[in-house]
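Show me any protein, keeping tokens residue-aligned.
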Amino acid sequence: MRSVLLYTAARFAIFLGTVAILALFGARGLLLLGLAVLISGIVSFVLLSGQRDAMSSAVVSGFQARRSRFERARTKEDG
């Protein structure tokens, strides 16, 4: 869960930084938001690849643990 929160915080920080830089260059309104989403997405894709891998690994292991607990509870119920 920690890796998910760190990745989300990093994405948000990159987005806010991109918004600030674009606002300094004069972008406003929907143009500002559209460019910020596009640029921060590209920057995040490049800079946060390791963090994204750690997050996806944590999410997958969490789902596997839940599935394992569900299967154990189901077999216990059947037996």
